[in-house]
Every structure is written in C-alpha cells, then in structure tokens.
Amino acid sequence: MVYIASWQEFQEAAENLYTKSPNKARYCVKWRSSEGKLVLKITDDTTCIKFKTYSSIFLNRFEALNLSLMQKMQNKRPTPIVHALGAPDITKDADQTRSSSPFVAQPAGPAAGGVKKKKPKKKK
User: Fold this and answer.
1) Strands annotated E in the chain
2) Choosing a second label site near 82 at 20 to 30 A (CA), which of 61, 74, 91, 113?
3) How far is it, in rounded angstroms, from Cα 47 to Cα 10?
4) Measured between alpha carbons, how far is 5 from 53 in angstroms, rounded to an integer?
C-alpha cells in the first residue's frame, strides 16, 4: 500500500483499477475530523492505491472522483429490445394499461394519507 502523492495520478489510477476489475474493486473513504485528514483507498485485492491529504482544496476533486466512480458503479448496459414477428408493441398500449389500472388516483394532500387534525375537547 503506497500513497500516491499527486491527485491526477491517483484519479487516473483509481478509475483504471475500477474499469479493469469492477466486480472485485472496493472503494473506501476515511475522514478524521480531529486531524482534518482525508484518506481515499481503492483496491481489488491485488493492487491497493491510497491518497492522503490534509487540505480542504481536494474536497471538490474528491467529490468529482466520487461522482465519477458512482456513475461507473451504477452503469448497466441496456438490454436490446428484440421485436418478434407478430408480437404486440408494448409502447403503444402503455397509456391504455395505465388508465385501466385497478387503483384509483387520489388527490395529494391531507385526504391522501396526511395527518388528521385532532378534534377539540367539548366544553362543559
């Protein structure tokens, strides 16, 4: 485990490590507020990359890296839609199926599950 000194090198190495083995890569963030220290670590059990800083300047860069890695972690390839001959087109009937739903649309607000007001006590 070696700390990388430059942010640009760490960001490139972290993104490359994740793209190389996305199923095994782990990303860890440690923040010690008493010391003001931020430690970032990404590993795939064979390679471990770490970055340590005490500067608050890196927070924006850290946020950009975090967003980039999260987008890569959530990215799924879309499944191709294959229309077979004679199969009905689902997109045309989408509005009709919504209107024939057994659930009745209710207006938003207190009547739709909001909190009821308490009744005042009767005066004697």
Assistant:
1) 2-3, 26-32, 37-43, 48-53
2) 74
3) 13
4) 9
